[in-house]
Specification:
alpha+beta, 18% strand
């Protein structure tokens, strides 16, 4: 499979008899084995080819399950796939041989899609680095996280679609750094059965794809409401971290705004007085809720063990205060979205850091990689709102711009408009 192959393009070839699902899946399997990104921790060759044969027989008999029929996809390794090990990126914690598919996997497979393998994740899906995974645009750079393996698999052209999870930005961060589209639906819009939890009030299963249309096809199969309002007015979030990004990232946001204006969309500045509190509130909530599920923790590395210990010792008052801040942030977002259809901001303030780097330069400030990774994604995470990261214009490493909206379909429509204006 070559980079940039889309769901629609592959589907057209299958239905025209130019290609077969066995050949398409076979190419994906070969690419998964050959990729230098370290995206995959398991490749599901024999079963995937058997399922591709079934897809070919069904399509030949006139049974068409929709746009995903015969299309290969990858699954983050905190999401169950029947007959595969789920290891959650840890040395031992959370490991189990899955007896059945997670609900999100089952829905995509019911639509005819074929799982080719499991992708690498940060431990317990809690991190912005995904150790062992490299960026497909530059193997000396990180892929982001924690759905780094899924983003790298799509960005390297192995598959046009992958499943990930997003608790504080874990779909959108690697999507931006790897140059693909990443969608975090609203909390509760995708089923979490069969997915290892991290912070249940923020956990969301999401999708990564080569373009908005690929993600839309997957979201429809997952049952995510996809009503798309006409986009007439978009707000640019101009507070806090949004004003402290690298110049190339800021230029990508400005370019996205210009493209929207060229299509007749009004773009206005929007104030979000509590937005700077989102990363801290999200982190405290994650500390408390992850400790309830996983502490005491054997079989994790020292970084995650320290976080779980911190969460176990967190005062209830601090957790309640974080929840109160979340409500204030959500109220501010609801008020803003009563005046605009969506909000536009950068996905990450910087491009992908070199592998092994602990800090990055962000507009003249030295910032920890993890802090930079969640600085702008936490706003949607802590509020539970849908958000979509779409590649922005860049002369070097990929950058992402992000749309937040009250409805997933509206955020995705904004991403489509930015792409349409290219």
């Amino acid at each position: 499979m070559t980079g940039g192959t889309t769901v629609a393009g592959l589907g057209a070839r299958l239905r025209a008899g130019i290609d077969t699902a066995v050949a398409v899946v076979g190419r994906a399997l070969a690419a998964a084995e050959a990729t230098g990104t370290g995206a995959f921790v398991q490749v599901r060759a024999e079963r995937a080819l058997a399922e591709a044969e079934v897809a070919d027989r069904e399509l030949a008999a006139g049974l068409d399950r929709g746009p995903l029929h015969g299309i290969p996809f990858a699954v983050k390794d905190n999401i169950d796939v029947a007959g595969c090990w789920t290891r959650c990126g840890t040395p031992g914690l959370g490991h189990h041989l899955a007896e059945r598919d997670a609900a999100v996997v089952a829905r995509l497979r019911a639509a005819g899609a074929v799982v080719v393998g499991k992708t690498r994740t940060h431990e317990l899906a809690w991190g912005m680095l995904t150790p062992g995974c490299r960026n497909p645009r530059d193997l000396g750079r990180i892929a982001g996280g924690s759905s780094g393996g899924s983003a790298a698999a799509v960005g390297d052209g192995v598959v046009p679609l992958a499943l990930g999870t997003d608790t504080a930005g874990s779909v959108r961060n690697p999507a931006a750094l790897c140059g693909v589209v990443g969608v975090k639906p609203g909390v509760g819009e995708t089923p979490m059965t069969g997915i290892a939890p991290l912070a249940p009030t923020q956990d969301t299963a999401g999708v990564l794809g080569t373009g908005p249309a690929d993600c839309a096809a997957a979201l429809l199969a997952l049952g995510v409401p996809m009503h798309r309002a006409d986009v007439r007015r978009v707000g640019i979030v101009a507070d806090g971290w949004a004003g402290r990004v690298e110049p190339e990232v800021g230029a990508a946001v400005a370019d996205a705004a210009a493209r929207l204006r060229a299509l007749g969309v009004e773009v206005v500045d929007v104030g979000m007085p509590h937005s700077s509190l989102a990363p801290a509130a999200s982190f405290v909530i994650m500390l408390a809720e992850s400790a309830r599920r996983w502490f005491p923790a054997d079989g994790v590395g020292p970084e995650i063990r320290a976080r779980l210990l911190l969460g176990a010792n967190l005062r209830d008052a601090d957790y309640r205060r974080a929840l109160a801040v979340r409500e204030a942030i959500r109220a501010g977002l609801d008020a803003a979205l009563a005046d605009v259809d969506a909000l536009l901001l950068a996905t990450t303030p910087v491009t992908a850091a070199p592998v092994g780097a602990q800090v990055v330069d962000c507009a003249g400030r030295s910032v920890p990689v993890e802090t930079a990774g969640t600085a702008l994604t936490a706003l949607a995470s802590v509020s539970g709102l849908p958000a979509v990261s779409v590649p922005g214009t860049a002369t070097g490493l990929p950058v992402g711009v992000q749309f937040l909206a009250a409805a997933t379909g509206t955020a995705l429509r904004c991403a489509e408009l930015v792409g349409t204006a290219r």
